[in-house]
Design brief:
Bound molecules: adenosine-5'-diphosphate, magnesium ion
Helix content: 25-40%
Shape: globular
Largest sheet: 6 strands, mixed
Number of domains: 2
CATH class of the largest domain: Alpha Beta
Oligomer: single chain
Strand order of the largest sheet: 6-7-8-3-9-10
CATH topology of the largest domain: Rossmann fold
Distance between the termini: 41 Å
Number of strands: 14
Structural class: alpha/beta
C-alpha cells in the first residue's frame, strides 16, 4: 500500500552534504503496524517527513496505493495529505486552544461544517478516552493525555495512514504501554496503517508486525519482528535486541539477575503450561520476547527467546528444569 522506491534526501552542510535518507526502498502493507528503528541521526524523522512531503526528496518515488506523491501538484497533494495523520514526541498541541478546539483544528482547515465538526470531535475524543477533558487546556494535562489529544487531532479527518515519530519517547514505560494499546485499538477500529518511528526496541516488540532498521540513512535490515529478534542479521540490530529493557522482578539488588535464554524444543504444544509451571515452581519471572515454530521434516521445532528474571539461584534452577524436560537452553546474555 505504501511503497517507497529508492528515496534519497540530502541536506547541505559546510563539509559537503549529509545524506539523511539513502536509497530507501520499503513496502508497507495496508493495515499493518510497521516499525522503523534506528539511533538518533539515522534518518528516521526525515524519512517520515518525506512520506507526506513535509520534506522534498532529492530522488525516488513515494507510492500510496496507485498514487505517486512526488508528481502531485499542491492541490492534489493536500487531498492526499488528509489521508495521512502524524503525531510527534512533543505532542505539538496548540496551547491557547482547549482539547476539543485542538481536535477541531484540522477539521476547520478541511472546511467541515460546524455541526459536523462538533459531532466528529466528540466521537474522536471518545475513541481516545478523553471526553471528560474536552474543555480543558493542554497545560492541565499529563504527558499521556496530551499525546491522546495529539492522536485525536491526527485521526480527526479519519486518515488511512498514521505516522508516529517517537510518539512515546517522552513518556514513562507505563504511559507508553497505554498509548501503544490505544494505537493498536485505533488501528483496528479505523483500519489504519501505522508507521512507528522509534529508537526503542520495546515499542517495536509491543505493537509492530514488521520492522526496518535504519543506519546512516539506509535500511540495513527489514523483516518480521519475531525474525529480527530471533535472528538479527546486523550488529546494530543485535544491540537493540540485547539492550531491550527487561520487566525486572523485585528481588534483593545483590542477587537480582536477568538472563536472556533461547529455548529450543520439539513439538509445538508445551510452551505455555511449561512456562507457567516453571514460574510457579521457581518463583522467576519469564517474559517471552519472541516465539516461532518451524516444521522440521515431520516434527515441529519450537524456538522461544525469553527473558528470565529473579535471583541468580532461582534462574539456575529454572535452566536445570528446562534441561530435564529435554529443552535445549542457550544463554544469549546474562
Ligand atoms: N533540516 C535539516 N538540515 C540539515 N540537516 C538535517 C536536517 N534535518 C535532518 N538533518 C540531518 O539528517 C540526519 C538525519 O536526521 P533525522 O532524520 O532527524 O534522524 P533521526 O530522526 O533518525 O534522529 C542527521 O544527520 C541530521 O543532522
Ligand atoms: Mg527523529
Amino acid at each position: 500500500m505504501i511503497h517507497l522506491k529508492s528515496l534519497t534526501k540530502t541536506f547541505p552542510h559546510p563539509d559537503g552534504k549529509i545524506t539523511a535518507v539513502d536509497q530507501v526502498t520499503l513496502k508497507i502493507n495496508t493495515g499493518e503496524i510497521f516499525g522503523i528503528i534506528g539511533l538518533s541521526g539515522a534518518g528516521k524523522s526525515t524519512l517520515v517527513r518525506l512520506i507526506n512531503r513535509l520534506e522534498e526528496a532529492d530522488s525516488g518515488e513515494i507510492w500510496i496505493d496507485d498514487t505517486e506523491l512526488r508528481n502531485l501538484n499542491k492541490l492534489k497533494l493536500n487531498i492526499v495529505r488528509k489521508e495521512i495523520g502524524m503525531i510527534f514526541q512533543h505532542f505539538n498541541l496548540l496551547e491557547s486552544r482547549t482539547v476539543e478546539e485542538n481536535v477541531a483544528f484540522p477539521l476547520e482547515l478541511a472546511g467541515m461544517k460546524k455541526k459536523e465538526i462538533g459531532e466528529r470531535v466528540q466521537e474522536t475524543l471518545r475513541l481516545v478516552g478523553l471526553l471528560d477533558k474536552a474543555k480543558v487546556h493542554p497545560a492541565q494535562l499529563s504527558g499521556g493525555q496530551k499525546q491522546r489529544v495529539a492522536i485525536a487531532r491526527a485521526i480527526a479527518n479519519r486518515p488511512k495512514i498514521l505516522l508516529c515519530d517517537e510518539a512515546t519517547s517522552a513518556l514513562d514505560p507505563q504511559t507508553t504501554k497505554s498509548i501503544l494499546t490505544l494505537l493498536k485499538e485505533l488501528k483496528n477500529t479505523l483500519n489504519l496503517t501505522v508507521i512507528m518511528i522509534t529508537h526503542e526496541m520495546e515499542v517495536i516488540r509491543e505493537i509492530c508486525e514488521r520492522v526496518a532498521v535504519m543506519q546512516n540513512g539506509a535500511v540495513i535490515e527489514c523483516d518480521a519482528v519475531e525474525t529480527v529478534f530471533m535472528h538479527p542479521k546486523t550488529e546494530l540490530t543485535r544491540s537493540f535486541v540485547t539492550h531491550l529493557r527487561p520487566d525486572r522482578k523485585q528481588v534483593a539488588p545483590k542477587d537480582a539477575a536477568s538472563y536472556r535464554l533461547q529455548l529450543t524444543f520439539l513439538g509445538d504444544s508445551i510452551q505455555e503450561p511449561l512456562l507457567s509451571r516453571t514460574i510457579q515452581k521457581y518463583g522467576v519471572e519469564i517474559n517471552i520476547l519472541a516465539a516461532e515454530i518451524n516444521q522440521l521434516a515431520t516434527v515441529p521445532v519450537g524456538n522461544l527467546l525469553v527473558e528470565v528474571s529473579g535471583s541468580k539461584e532461582e534462574i539456575e534452577f529454572c535452566i536445570h528444569a528446562f534441561h530435564q524436560q529435554n529443552i535445549q537452553v542457550e544463554v544469549v546474555s546474562a
